[in-house]
Structures are given as structure tokens and as C-alpha cells.
């Protein structure tokens, strides 16, 4: 089952602190959306508002067109996968997964059958009789997922579900989450602070900061052409070049590039992989290598450009290049799309 | 040599704890009229005597009834208080907690006298019920403290997950909170039972015609030493041990 979600002008305050400020967001049925942001940005509060654990100070939440703003968690078509899994330690996996169906009044035979199917979906059918403490972290995570999916929610909420797993397992579980979402078709809303995780699984990323939405869109769009400086910085490493917007375009220490943004001080963002020794729209010119290290898929180098000796650029060069410190390279940067923001 | 010292210390310590009990049990098998050396026997005549005594067996059953009943009440009230204070933000919660635990520091004599005055003022006749009320009063703070201490974030998150999956408050308590706290609840219950089982002062003050076992033993003591008392003591000890073993099997084994 699946349903669209509409968040209408939701504001939430804890005392004097505004955790969410005028959040407006439409999520399509069957979409996989991640809420991405640093801790304290309001992403978990927004998830709690969707799940019914927090009633927003202002605004409405609609799921499948119905206003659920004041409904308690038990009466919403949502279920949550909690960060610490919150499994019932005194029940077998089968009973854990069947709990929601038991609450819905299903008899044991039917709910056991559904619970078995769900455990099958997450690859734990063989462990149905085990207790949660006999499982590894990744397995507990799968049980929590199966338990939340067993009741057939329209919307599944995931609160940093992979936060407690080690890196390799986290990457494996990302792929699995995405494939399970494709199979069940439920709308997934997934909170994370890991931008790689967000890019790996989301159809759409919502970048949040200080209770507001900074940017939303496909991972590629936010990576290539972020709407705000915060989104540019949070999605990954970027070189910030101080610049000034004038009549001719954006004046940088390396020359002027066409830009139709407002006049005044600005900052140009260049991703490390956009800076290189090949051809590019913006000629940075000669730059001295401070250090360089081999990273497998690329060589990461810190360089001081001669045109702006107080800047240090980070560049991802081809893995076959490993310049010695002190060497001088001629750099240029790709500026399509141009990412620049006015600074106040 | 240095290894022998800890063992000697261990033996001395256990000797100190168990020698009086050992002597009591040994002389309950005395085949004479005085529980003093030399040991003559063994004989079960005092056990036959004790178990044939209607007053004593009645007191024993009374004690069991009071212990189990008052413990059930104390644990239920203690659990509800702990749940309320752990899950909800209440004005003056710290003061309420302190007030619940404070009676632990008051001597049983004072609690018993206070209850006696109150019970007589409201005109309730002294009986096993009033003794049970007294034991519930003295065991409630302990039950509350044990259960409150074991309420943590883990249960709270599981309760939240249960509500998310459609459980009402009663279902949350019945299917999640109580089963997850079962070790603490059972531990509180068995501790209450053993404390009530050999409590004397409150039971002495708050009973009249039907008495509990410690009160009955006390009245027998006035007629002097007899291996009969040793036999009763052994039976009391055996029942306490049974409660401890049961607690071990039910509570602590499962936790491992």
C-alpha cells in the first residue's frame, strides 16, 4: 500500500526554540525521499510530525489526502523504523513482526503467515523462532523493517535506520532498502545525516538546515546545481572562491565568468572533481602542489594557485597523476552549471 | 600459603553466617526436651509435634497469605507509581519520588505504631487484613525503588514502537511494559514476600486473634526453650530458601 504525503506550512516550536519553520513539502506515492541535514536541523522532528509523535504548533499533514495532523501514531497509516530498532526483546522474531497485525485483531494463523512472508522478504525466515538478542545489528535492523512493513503502511518512516551499523554493512543495507522499497511500493521517508547514504538510495533528497528546507531535488541536481550555499557544502566537499558580481559577470581571481546573479560580493563553488589539468571554462592557471595522495579512484591534491596565493584548492586529479609537492600544474575548472551564491 | 588465606577467610565468613542456622537445624532433630548439646537423635518427633499443632499450622498459613497478598498489593502499587513517574512529566516529580522512598528510612516500630493509631481511629478491627496493609506499606517503597530503577529508555522506545503499530495503552502495558520489566517485578515480589514472611513488629502490633507465624513463635518463646522452636525455625528457613530458589529460577536464570 502507498499514499502521497503533503506537508502544509508546518511550524513547530519547543518553548522558544523553533525546530521547524514553515515546512512545505509534497511527497508522491511510492517515492523514496530522504531528509538530509546536520544534527539539530529539524529532520527528526519533521519525521516525528509525520509519525504522529509530535503535534506541530502550526500547519497540517495530509496522507492520501486525509488530514492526520491530530491523529495519534496508532491511527495513522504510517509505521516507523526507529534508530535503535526498539524490538520487543521478550518476543520471537515472528511475534515481533506479527505484533502490528495482532493489534489489528488478526488471528495467530493469519498473522504468522504474513510475518513469515515479511521475514522472507528481509532474508530472515530461517530465524523466525529466535529472540532479538541472538541477532547481529544488521539483522535486528531487518526485523525492525519487517515489523514496520507487516501492517502494510501507506508510508514508512525511517529514523537514521543505518546509523548504528558499520560502514560496509551500511552500504549493503542501503542497496537492500532500496530494492525492498521497489518491491513493496510503499512511500519511504528516510532521515539521515550521511549525504552518501542519501545519494545512494533517494529518488529525491530534501536538504534541511536550522528548521528550514534548503534545497530539494534529485541527488544529481542537488550535487551539480545546489540552490543554496549550505546545500552545496553539505552535499559534499567544495572549493569556495571569493568573487564579486559586476556588469560583466562574476569576477574571480582567475578571470570573469558570465553570471546573472545579483551584484555584490559572492562566492563561487567548485567541486574538487571539477578542478583539473584538462580543458575547462575557467582557467585557474599555474598552481603549486602542496600535497597529493592516491585515493584509488582519484588523486586528491591541495594546490595553491599563483593568481590567488591565499587560497588552497582541493582538486581530484586522475588516479594516474601523482604530482610531487612543489610541482606546478596548470589548472582549469568546469563551470557548467555555474554554482555561485551572493554573500550578505 | 598465600592462596590459603582467601579460602580460610571464605570458610570463616560462611561459618559466621551459617553456623547459627546450622545449629538451629541440627537441634531441631534433637531426641530430647532441650535444644542444647549433647546431640541425641536424630529424631523427627518435634516436626511431627509442630505439624500436628493446629495453632502453628494456622499461623503458618496466615503468614503465607499475608506475605503473598501484601506483596502483590505492594508490587502492583509500586509498579503503577514507577510507571507514572518514569513516563509522564509531573509537577514535583522529584518530591513525589522522595516521598515514596522515604518510608524505607523509618523504623518498622514507628510505621507500625502510626498505622495502629490510624486503624484504631477509623475503627477497623485488627486482623490479618490490617497486618497485610502494614506489610504493603513497608514493602511499597522497596518495590517502587526496584521497579523504578529498572525502567529505562529501552522499554520506553519499545512502548513507542508498540503504539506506532496500533497498540492501545492497556495493550502496551500488558504486552510490552510488564513482560519487559518482569525480572524487576518478580524480584520485587519475592523480596517483599521474604521480608513480610519474617516481619514481627508490624504484624505483632496490627493482629489480634489470627496471628502470623513470627508472632506465634514469639508467644511460644515465653514458655522457654524447646526443640519445637528449632523445628519451626527450620520450617520457616526452608520456606525462605524455597522462595529464594524460586526467584533464582524464575528471575535471574532467564536474564542470562
TrEMBL record, chain A:
SMART domains, alphabetized? AAA
- Give the GO molecular function terms: ATP binding; ATP hydrolysis activity; transmembrane transporter activity
- Which residues are listed as membrane-spanning? none
Q: Which InterPro entries does the annotation name? A: AAA+_ATPase, ABC_SmlMolc_Importer, ABC_transporter-like_ATP-bd, ABC_transporter-like_CS, Mo/tungstate-bd_C_term_dom, P-loop_NTPase, Transp-assoc_OB_typ2
Ranges of residues in domain ABC transporter:
5-235
Q: Output the Gene Ontology cellular-component terms.
A: ATP-binding cassette (ABC) transporter complex
For this UniProt record, the keywords arranged alphabetically read as follows:
ATP-binding, Nucleotide-binding, Transport
Name a biological process GO annotation.
Answer: quaternary ammonium group transport
Q: What is this protein called?
A: Spermidine/putrescine ABC transporter ATP-binding protein
Please tell me the species this chain comes from.
Answer: Roseivivax isoporae LMG 25204
UniProtKB/TrEMBL annotation, chain B:
> Domain ABC transmembrane type-1, which positions?
60-247
Q: Which organism is it from?
A: Roseivivax isoporae LMG 25204
Give the CC-aspect GO terms. Answer: plasma membrane
Say which family it is in: Belongs to the binding-protein-dependent transport system permease family. CysTW subfamily.
Q: Which residues cross the membrane?
A: 7-29, 64-86, 98-122, 128-151, 172-197, 231-252
Q: Which UniProt keywords apply?
A: Cell membrane, Membrane, Transmembrane, Transmembrane helix, Transport
InterPro entries xrefs: Bact_Polyamine_Transport (IPR051789), MetI-like (IPR000515), MetI-like_sf (IPR035906)
Q: What is this protein called?
A: ABC transporter permease
The record describes its membrane topology as: Multi-pass membrane protein
- Could you tell me where this protein is found in the cell? Cell membrane
**According to its UniProt record, where is this protein mainly located?**
membrane
